[in-house]
Give the backbone structure.
Amino acid sequence: MSFVASLSPRAVSAPESGIVEILNYARGRENLLPLWVGEGDLPSPDFINRPASDALLAGETFYTWQRGIPELREALSRYYARHFAVSLSPEHFYVTASGMQSIVLSVQALTSPGDEMVFLTPAWPNIVSAIELAGARAVGVELSFGNGSWSLDLERLEAAITPKTKAIFINTPSNPTGWTAKREDLTAILELARKRGIWILADEIYALYYYGAAARAPSFLDVKDADDRIIFVNSFSKNWSMTGWRVGWIVAPPETGQMFENLIQYSTSGVAQFIQRGAVAALDHGDDFVRANFERAARSRDLLCDALIATNRVETLKPEGALYAFLKIDGVTDSRAAALDIVDKTGVGLAPGTAFGKGGEAFLRACFLRDPRQIEDAAGRLCDYILGR
């Protein structure tokens, strides 16, 4: 028997990321414009790096609070009061080793083997694998696509719920589609969850990347009651250019605190204290940086989408939220093959829609959180490719 054949089938069957496949294929090439992963091109700023560096050099390298240092949980409380106008005590917050770990621990908390979790697709592929590695079943509900934009069919969502359903995973603003739930959408989803007695797992990582009139996207925090069963997952990665730091958080009822502390203990035993010092600085002093990142994204979104739409061969609208243009190019049916061809011929790295599940097969995702000059260059290369120039 081979080594692999003797391993857990659940682990062995976990798929390779379709995004990472393209990244590994072209990583390190000259004149490459990498729009494939969900991060910008700016490094973490000094006002975040310095407190972390100082804490490291000062010897803050010991075991620390499993739930997060008190200073960080207090800073999260202030952040939510400032941006969401809600009063949440520090006991609502649990610091994790990335937004991805926040999702994994929340899925573990909500499901047992044989249970189901419903999610909206096309979706960031990691949620499906997190559910399936927990032994539960991921049930996808397709968003509807028409006239370049995406929408949610609530009847289709309700039809996917069965007696085995424990939770609905809602990512809004959405990666990869940019779909952003309106307040009435959130109210309807919440009423459905209440009626069916299930949880909501809310991924609102892109809430501040919202291109509407308000300062942020609508949130379940705007419509929930204190006794509603909702867990929020989030990350420092996008807002503050901290993707490599691997630090995130969970917002959950304080009654769940010991459970989440235990899950953190038995996975990572907590986030390094010096990293958390940087996260405190990000929350308390980073609002201007987040606004600048958003303005950069908004400018680059316009440059990329306007250029591609003008070819008359790309079906998309400017996304309402998040950091991605999800592009349907005339004639593309296999986006994996197209992504390989595009990076070979243009040097622009895109993520194939096949990586995002049902409904995404004909699309390509471009992350536009980059220098507008780079995005203008990428748009020109892509337009030449699309138009056969």
